[in-house]
Structure formats: structure tokens, C-alpha cells
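Q: Got a minute? One more chain.
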Amino acid sequence: MSEIKSVAQINLLKWMLEDLRKVTLEGVKHLTKEQLFTPPVENEFCIGSYIMHLAEADISWYETISGKKVPDELKKKSYYGCWFDSGPDFNPPSEPPEYNDYFEAIAETRKIFLEYVSSLDDSELEDTVTVKRKIGDRETSKKWIIYHIIEHEAHTRGQMFMLIRKAGWNKKS
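A: Always. Here it is, folded:
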């Protein structure tokens, strides 16, 4: 008799990741290419950088949770490590990316992350991985990493939506 894979928790986490992204996209799709690249308020990153930051998070956590690398081409496409909170490597694009570039990048990175999550069994959620940090490595569960991706996007989405309102770029009813 073959063993049945237990995926109730995995399916819930995947649904949360997908639903969260759907709401995020709904809240920014009305912006123009120029609005995505223009800082919404003084001394703030542009909304496009926040969108690409979601791709960065998917890439970084995918590499941590799976132990696999994302192709350099996708990292470049996502402006990985060179735009949002990049520190000394700050090297954002000098011209606005094409409108669809933002959404294709986050779709590709989320697809890779979701495919990995789909490969898991619920029993693997408590498996731990080493998270490398400047202040010291720590062990964390795969479940916490998936939760953190969800929590991080909700936080980032709130920042984007607030900045969109402050700029007066709200959706017109």
C-alpha cells in the first residue's frame, strides 16, 4: 500500500501565499509605469522597488529553504540586491523598467517558491535550515520561513498602499 502524502498545512500556506499576492497586485495594477518608478513622497523608495523587493524576498528565502540557487538572470531581472535597502551596493535602474517587467519578475520568483512549497509534505514543515546572518547563524523551521514570507509581503503591501494614498495615486472608483 502506498503512503498518502499529507498536505493540508501545505495547501493552506500555498493558498495564503497566492491570495496575498492577488490582493497585492490588485492594489498596484492601476499605477502607470511612471508612478511605479517615481518616489511617491520625498525621501522614499518608488513603489516599483517595493514590488521588486518582494521578488528579492522570494529569491533569498527560496535559496535558504531549498539550498538551491536561483538563476543569475532572474536575480538581475529582479534587481536583486541593488535597489531596495541594498546598502553600499545601491544600484537601481536609471530608467523606468517596462511596466510588465515588475510583474513578470515577481510572478517568476513566486512560482519558484510555490513549486518548492508544493514539493513538501506537512511533516517536513518542522525541518530546520540554517539561516545565515551577519550577527550569527540560526536554525529555523521551514514553516517559519513560509510564514515569514507571508508576514513580510503583508507588511510591504501595507507600506506600498500607504505611500500610494499619500501620493494621491488611489484607484479611481
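A: Helices lie at 8-28, 33-37, 47-66, 72-77, 99-119, 142-167.
Q: Perfect, thanks.
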